[in-house]
Amino acid sequence: MGLIAEVYHGLSDKMNAAFAASGLSEIDFETIIRLYRSPGRRLRMSDLAAQTSLSTSGVTRVVDRLEREGLVERVACPSDRRASFATLTDAGATRLESVLPRHIEDIEKWFTGLLSPQRLEELLDSLRIIRDVVRPCATAGAMEAGSAEAAHPELSSRRS
């Protein structure tokens, strides 16, 4: 566990500079990229909370802040008055797209580029097995992996 924590924090430190240069925090980026990858660039608030490291109240605060910045908007669910969707705006997509090239370079430099394709695939497969057990709702509301990669090849599992 210590090794996983050291790698995660080291990668976060390396990548946060690109986020900060775009006026985003790490959790802002995580929220926006989850929406960007989702069908219609939107997720139910509960699914967004499940996919991020946030509680439902935490995701509400992040979406409120991103909404004030014009990056996300909240849309009522037509079939359930109690639910709402967080939807990425064009401004939010533009902000994400401004940081993606550097983010992808950083991932390649500090993570995927350090491993052979076979070792990387084995690592990603192993991480998915663990994730699916410890956070089974982490992909709630998301597209099938192949569809997401087809829609946004720059976000393929090789790079994110």
From TrEMBL:
UniProt cross-references to InterPro entries, sorted A to Z: HTH_MarR-typ, MarR/SlyA-like, WH-like_DNA-bd_sf, WH_DNA-bd_sf
Domain of life: Bacteria
Chain ranges of the HTH marR-type domain: 1-132
One family name in Pfam for this protein: MarR_2
PANTHER family, per the entry: MARR FAMILY REGULATORY PROTEIN, TRANSCRIPTIONAL REGULATOR, MARR FAMILY
Protein name: MarR family winged helix-turn-helix transcriptional regulator
